[in-house]
Write a structure and sequence with these properties.
It is built from 10 helices and 13 strands. It is α/β, with parallel strands linked by helices and 324 residues long. It has 2 domains: 202 residues, NAD(P)-binding Rossmann-like Domain (Rossmann fold, 3-Layer(aba) Sandwich), CATH 3.40.50.720; 94 residues, UDP-galactose 4-epimerase, domain 1, CATH 3.90.25. A 7-stranded parallel sheet has the order 3-2-1-4-5-6-11, with helices on both faces. Strand 1, helix 1 and strand 2 form a beta-alpha-beta unit. Helix 4 packs parallel to helix 5. The model has no long low-confidence stretch (mean pLDDT 96). Bound molecules: nicotinamide-adenine-dinucleotide (NAD). Nicotinamide-adenine-dinucleotide binds next to helix 1, helix 4 and strand 5. The site of nicotinamide-adenine-dinucleotide (NAD) has 26 residues, from helix 1, helix 4 and strand 5.
Length: 324
């Protein structure tokens, strides 16, 4: 049987680089495209194009063959320090919207039948996420829309864009709303890192420098759920190869406060540190994945305890910190 030909957009980033590895393990032929090569390990893609997907000509040139599957993961994004300060909103909206507009058009022209789009839990309305112990992130709760960031608004716009190409042009589109994906080989100190990586770094740095505390943005009572990268990829592949479009949550239902996350990391590191709460960007008060729909449609949902993935992530970040 001929090898599946797959395009991964954003293959130089965290999720995209892990995706390329997984698809290679499955025996696919993989082309990656990104502004940069993966930072922490050699890409496993067969072909890697350095290109800017805001440029429609670049999009058309990377989609020069009829790919069996396209995974569109490229976006201008980051953690709270990048998306919730408001300072990067124009870039986030402009850059990511252009990437999606151009990639879809290029795939349509080339008759690519199946494309995955990585949306985000950030599309959910702020008014359903104000009680940290009881957030509502059921898929149908997305409307009336009121995301708390422009990053979320762009994701919502792009969900509609993909769904419109599905409706009008018959393209097979799959959409997942990712909830805080984490793991080794993601941003950890470049201003785009998310809570698990940032806290692993803070704990590892404090231990290395003999300090007895770490700082946390906000009161530490805000809640989130975090999904390990391998389960994110598993869920995405199952969705992509199903006959269902989505949008669907891909996330964990194990909700923790940010203080609990920090304490779990300290426990893994074997060191108890004090927590100093300081002002900083935080996002909504509470958020966790609601996995009823994915389980109902695909008979699958993530099950790995947070701690298992955190241990691997902490060890990797500890190594990076020691190397610096
Ligand atoms: P990432 O920042 O590590 O990867 C995104 C990649 O896109 C980067 O390598 C970046 O260089 C590339 N990119 C940006 N602009 C580009 C351009 N103009 N041309 C080509 N490449 C460009 O982020 P990630 O965590 O791997 O996220 C992947 C996708 O999943 C994104 O769409 C993101 O919004 C979505 N998502 C991620 C999370 C998460 O927790 N990581 C949560 C929700 C949604």
């Amino acid at each position: 049987m001929a090898k599946k030909r797959i395009l991964v957009c954003g293959a130089g980033g965290f999720i995209g680089s892990h995706f390329a590895k997984r698809l290679k393990k499955e025996g696919c032929w993989v082309r990656g495209v990104d502004l940069k090569y993966p930072e922490f390990s050699e890409t496993e893609a067969d072909d890697f194009v350095i290109g800017d997907l805001r440029d429609p000509y670049v999009c058309r040139s990377v989609v020069d063959t009829k790919f069996d599957e396209v995974y569109q993961l490229a976006a201008d994004m980051g953690g709270a320090g990048y998306v919730f300060t408001g300072e990067n909103d124009a870039n986030i909206m402009h850059n990511s919207a252009l990437i999606n507009l151009n990639m879809l058009e290029a795939c349509y022209r080339r008759n690519v039948k199946r494309i995955f789009y990585s949306s985000s839990a950030c599309i959910y309305p702020k008014y359903n996420q104000e009680d940290p112990q009881n957030p509502n992130c059921a898929e149908e709760s997305a409307y009336p829309a009121m995301p708390d960031s422009d990053y979320g608004w762009e994701k919502l716009f792009s969900e509609h864009l993909y769904l419109a190409f599905h409706r009008n042009y018959g393209m097979e589109v799959r959409i997942a709303r990712y909830h805080n994906i984490f793991g080794p080989e993601g941003s950890w100190n470049d201003g785009r890192e998310k809570a698990p990586a940032a806290l692993c770094r803070k704990v590892a740095v404090a231990i290395l420098n003999g300090e007895d505390y770490i700082e946390i943005w906000g009161d530490g009572k805000q809640t989130r759920s975090f999904l390990y990268i391998d389960e994110c990829i598993e869920g995405t592949l199952r969705l992509m190869r199903s006959d269902w479009t989505g949008p669907v949550n891909i996330g964990s239902e194990e909700m923790v406060t940010i203080d609990q996350l920090a304490k779990m990391i300290m426990d893994i590191a074997g060191k108890k540190l004090k927590i100093k709460h300081v002002p900083g960007p935080q996002g909504v008060r509470g958020r966790k994945s609601d996995n009823r729909l994915i389980y109902n449609k695909l008979g699958w949902k993530p099950t790995q305890p947070l701690r298992v993935g955190l241990e691997k992530t902490y060890r990797w970040i500890e190594e990076q910190v020691k190397r610096k």
